[in-house]
Amino acid sequence: MVRGPGDTPSSAIAPLTRRRDGRSADLERIREALLRAAEAVRPFTSGAVEWASKAERGDPVTAADLAIDQVLRTSLPRPDEGWLSEETVDDRARLGARRVWIVDPLDGTREFIDGIPEWSVSIGLVEDGMPVAGGVLNPATEELVLGAPGLGVTLNGEAAAPAHPGTGLTGARVLASRSEVARGEWDRYREAGFEIVPCGSVAYKLGQVAAGLADATWTLVPKHEWDVAGGAALVLAAGLRLSLSDGSTPAFNAADPKLPNFLAGPAPLLETFRAHWVG
């Protein structure tokens, strides 16, 4: 797996900034929560964990998912802030909150179970429906991406910048859902001229795009807000574009927290993709 600048253990990742006010303080809360999450998952061995199927959807869940969820919930929300997590019963009080934490304690649980180092912890902070700060940590590869619009993006404590492949798809490196590729859903793009790179966690994919390790990523199947909120903040922090397949901008903290699809990358590249390959 590609490592980025500042290639250090997660426990040694430096704070984005020493300022403790405003958005920088939000990022510091995210950073500290992610490092606590890394400690919570340490007792579990990827590739050698027991798991069960969730009753409502049949998705896998492990004790690691639940342990991280507990850590994040005790680390992040304050009394006036909302909470939405894949592993917590939805508290609809979040709909009346201006600031909402939207998290996926362990995005890519299938990869975690299978021992594939493409899983992550994702934290997004949403204000008035828009992602304003986020962080994605892959403990297996020790990559921590933090960012907020106006403050930029860091990878393991060092400034990162997105790739700029131009307006066309030719030669672009596009991260694809590993399960979507396995189901043949990306076969239609084999002649589109871009490199298709299978990867597990969607949050991890978005973090790599924001940090310049890939050019774009998208999924044309539904995703929940917790899958993408943290990565969405990072993509916006990198000055890149988020959209749905119809070109509209996704909003967060909805009553039904499911998005029909999700695209992220440089605006010209996404427009080229939408014009020729969507529909």
Strand order of the largest sheet: 3-4-5-6-7-8-9
Strand content: 25-35%
Report the average pLDDT across residues: 91
Shape: globular
Give the helix tally. 7
- State the low-pLDDT regions, or none: 1-20
What is the CATH topology assignment of the largest domain? Fructose-1,6-Bisphosphatase, Chain A, domain 1
- What is the CATH domain class of the largest domain? Alpha Beta
Number of strands: 16
Structural descriptors:
Fructose-1,6-Bisphosphatase, Chain A, domain 1, 7-stranded mixed beta sheet, 2 domains, alpha+beta, D-Maltodextrin-Binding Protein, domain 2, 28% helix, disordered N terminus, 279 residues, 5-stranded mixed beta sheet, single chain
Question: Could you walk me through the main structural features you see in this protein, from its secondary elements to its overall organization?
Answer:
Helix content is 28%, strand content 26%. The chain is an alpha+beta fold and 279 residues long. The strands form 4 sheets. It has a 7-stranded mixed beta sheet, sandwiched between helices. Strand 7 and strand 8 (152-155) form a beta hairpin. The longest helix has 20 residues, at 22-41. It starts with 21 loop residues before the first helix and ends with a helix.
